[in-house]
Amino acid sequence: MFQDKAYRFKWADLGDIEKGRPNLGNMTNVAVYRLMHFSTREVLIENFGVEKTNQLLFQSGKLAGQEFCRNLLNVNASLSDFIAELYETLLKLKVGILRVEKSDPNSMHLVVTVSEDLECSGLPVTGATVCDYDEGFLAGVLGVYLNKEFSVKEIDCWSTGDRTCRFRINPQP
């Protein structure tokens, strides 16, 4: 699977979690997720630098968001129903609490927050945003739903001293 250069991640590659984890189930501690995420980030930075690492994490998040949308969300729903379903799904999976702060349905310019998110809620303040993966994830989800490319930029982050992550979302020309 991973040896083949033609390999492309797909939802089915997540496997049958119920079969593989009959006793432990599908939940784990957030610290374990962050251990994987931030150790991977560190190795990527050591090998490729910060800018390239941020790009790679964005791309990973985008691919994950695309597969997430295709497999867990109704892409034929109205925008308001789609956002409500995304909110419910992220909450159910304990990914975070999504809120739309500003939206222009005509231009698809949005500002959303994700509170209590997996990636950074509770991290020490460093002055730098760290949710590159989440930026890509949101771009991937919206891109599949609306069949267009989106630019997503984190403008507030727990690690910059805010208590929620805030993202500015704009369609790309």
Keywords:
alpha+beta, Muramoyl-pentapeptide Carboxypeptidase, domain 2, 4-stranded antiparallel beta sheet, globular, 4-vinyl reductase 4VR domain-containing protein, NO_sig/Golgi_transp_ligand-bd, V4R
Question: What is the gist of this entry?
Answer:
Helix 2 packs across helix 3 (50-72) and helix 3 (50-72) packs across helix 5 (132-146).
List the helices and strands and how they pair.
Elements: H1 17-20, H2 30-48, H3 50-72, H4 79-92, E1 97-104, E2 109-115, H5 132-146, E3 150-156, E4 165-171
Antiparallel strand pairs: 1-2, 2-4, 3-4
Helix pairs in contact: 2-3, 3-5
Explained architecture:
With 173 residues, the protein is α+β, with helices and mostly antiparallel strands. The chain has a 4-stranded antiparallel beta sheet, with helices on one face. It has a domain of 118 residues: Muramoyl-pentapeptide Carboxypeptidase, domain 2 (2-Layer Sandwich). Helix content is 43%, strand content 17%. Strand 1 and strand 2 form a beta hairpin. The mean pLDDT is 95.
Helices and strands, in order, run as HHHHEEHEE
Portion in beta strands? 15-25%
Oligomer kind:
single chain
Average pLDDT over all residues? 95
CATH class of the domain at 54-171: Alpha Beta
The CATH architecture term of the domain at 54-171 is 2-Layer Sandwich
List the strand order in the largest sheet. Answer: 1-2-4-3
Could you estimate the helical fraction of the residues in percent?
A: 40-55%
Low-confidence stretches: none
Task: Tally the beta strands.
Answer: 4
Describe the sheet with the most strands.
4 strands, antiparallel
Organism: Geoalkalibacter ferrihydriticus
Protein name: 4-vinyl reductase 4VR domain-containing protein
InterPro entries: NO_sig/Golgi_transp_ligand-bd, V4R
Domain 4-vinyl reductase 4VR: 109-171
